[in-house]
Design goal:
This protein is mainly alpha-helical. The chain has helices at residues 3-16, 21-33, 68-78, 91-95, 102-113, 120-133, 162-186, 219-240, 252-263, 269-281, 290-293, 304-314, 321-343; strands spanning 43-44, 50-51, 156-158, 204-208, 214-218. The chain starts with a helix and ends in a 5-residue tail after the last helix.
């Protein structure tokens, strides 16, 4: 998924479920920032202490994608959570990302259990990113494995707009020229072989693995299913943790059609974001406040540079969103690698 879903869509779902604007903004920003936290250099503070960032993503052409250690630290816990299906399968089969898997649901419960802690909103945002990605990245593995290889000539898309067809095919050809033709063949990690097709909400498509297995994908149906699950999760968050908000009389049936309309909109990222903002401002998903109508993704408070500035101004870090994000990401990664996956006998 991309920013239209990870930030704007997640914010809308949180608000519709009853979460107040301020915590909804923190949750949604943390969710999107998982795709942007690529800094790994320690931040030395004025008191000569250092903050070590927790990387949660890499650029597609980053050489670090080739490193097995980084695949375990970045792609597995943050983007391709193992689905453990079938339970008695091989290691490779258990490592395949599966939508709404038992490990994914267990991960959400862990984040929910930390809701009242200072890191709570950030833990929830990170977990929601990973959970949502299971509905986009399923069928692929966050490690270098032949399982991820796809026959490039078998990728087919079903889109109504000729303009959008030309747009995404041009994007795909450019991606193949830069990545698949070189590193993508040497390093079959994640869904690199099918570029960003899993991340486009409106796309209905198909592809075939090198072994001939044909896979049919319906992104709108998958994304709408993810939306329903996250909406219910946010409603539970409100019910058990009043500081986030109070459940409101908005039912899934009240917003389902509008969500489907937004998700199926055939447009580039910029115009998909506009569709979310328009629906929010028009009150089609919930009763908007002035803050809702002014919604804009702003990652500046989460970036590594903000940590130094915050410490210089306050002499502490306990209220610094950038610092708290890295702490939450570290806790999330440790939970996935050292508790969650061992529970499912995927990691010793």
């Amino acid at each position: 998924m991309q920013i239209d879903m990870h930030f704007y869509g997640l914010y809308a779902l949180a608000r519709a479920a009853g979460i107040r604007p301020d915590p909804a903004l923190v949750i949604a920003t943390a969710s999107q920032f998982v795709d942007e936290a690529i800094d790994d250099e320690a931040i030395v503070l004025a008191d000569q202490n250092a903050v070590v960032p927790t990387m949660t993503s890499h650029k597609p052409l980053d050489w670090q994608n080739c490193l097995p250690g980084d695949q375990w630290k970045v792609w597995v816990p943050f983007h391709f959570l193992p689905g453990n299906q079938p339970e008695g399968g091989s290691f490779t089969e258990k490592m395949v990302c599966r939508k709404n898997s038992a490990p994914a649901r267990r991960m959400l419960e862990n984040a929910l259990s930390m809701a009242d802690q200072p890191l709570g909103p950030l833990m929830i945002g990170i977990a929601c990113h990973v959970y949502a990605d299971t509905f986009a990245h399923y069928g692929f593995i966050g490690l270098r494995r032949d399982w991820n290889r796809v026959r490039n000539d078998t990728v087919e898309i079903k889109v109504r707009s000729r303009k959008i067809i030309d747009y995404i095919e041009a994007k795909f050809e450019d991606f193949k020229a830069r990545l698949i033709g070189s590193a993508g063949e040497v390093m079959p990690v994640g869904h690199a072989a099918v570029a960003t097709y899993p991340d486009r909400p409106y796309l209905v498509w198909r592809y075939a693995h090198e072994n001939g297995l044909v896979v049919q994908r319906d992104n709108p149906a998958d994304y709408l299913e993810a939306g329903r699950k996250l909406f219910d999760f946010f409603a539970r968050l409100c019910q058990g943790h009043g500081q986030y908000g109070r459940s409101r009389p908005v039912k899934w049936s009240d917003i389902k059609n509008e969500l489907k309309k937004i998700i199926t909109k055939e447009a580039d990222k910029k115009n998909r974001i506009k569709a979310w903002k328009k629906a929010i401002s028009a009150g089609k998903l919930f009763s908007p406040t002035a803050k809702d109508k002014a919604l804009r993704y702003d990652p500046r408070l989460f970036k590594s540079a903000s940590v130094s500035y915050y410490f210089a101004d306050h002499g502490r870090l306990d209220g610094c969103q950038g610092y708290l994000f890295h702490q939450a990401a570290w806790k999330h990664r440790n939970f996935v690698l050292h508790k969650l996956l061992p529970e499912y006998a995927i990691v010793a």
